[in-house]
Amino acid sequence: MSQRSTQAFNLGRHLSEKTDVPVELRHESGARWLVQWPDGPTRDQMRALVTEMLEKHPYHFGLMKSREISFSRMDTTRAWAARAVAARRDGSLAAETARGAARRRELGIDRIRVGITEPKAAEYYVLVNFIEQQIDDTAYPDRPSDPTDAPLIEELLTAGRRSEYAMANILTNELLVPEND
Fold this sequence. Notes:
By secondary structure, the chain is mainly α. It is built from eight helices and three strands; from the N terminus they run αββααβααααα. Helix content is 58%, strand content 11%. The chain starts with a helix and ends in a 5-residue tail after the last helix. A hairpin with a 2-residue loop joins strand 1 (24-29) and strand 2. The protein has helices at 3-19, 43-56, 58-61, 77-90, 92-107, 122-137, 149-159, 164-176; strands at 24-29, 32-38, 68-74. The protein folds into two domains: 3-74, GMP Synthetase, Chain A, domain 3 (2-Layer Sandwich); 77-176, no CATH class. The longest helix has 17 residues, at 3-19.
């Protein structure tokens, strides 16, 4: 293993200790490296942490400083469920889904047919995009925002068979059912 690869491995190990999630640096090509981790800090937080480590520890990671480093946080279905449950609890899921679906209808893109026989309602696409944005904006998105969310996260994961698409269908159907007065 080259000295640079050793420094990259050690930087990943150091980042793993700092963030409490497994972090890996992978050589892509030439001077390009990729930092990957599941859930955990946001991309901006990881970028800042890597910059800090390279500045503070030139002896340990100096050969990585001149490299082009990109960042990729891999999100889990647990993160999807946790953000959906948090947004449902605080009311933003229903509000943003209704707002976004109304906007799609206004623009004439209510349903999209992309090689599927049964297109989804506008609410489905808006809900999925909203949850994905919540994941991107949240550090450690897999963790409950509130202790009362934990059992609901498990229920959603189980009901949705740990599939984001199935969970999105469940939540969309819940939003589309008229409330009984």
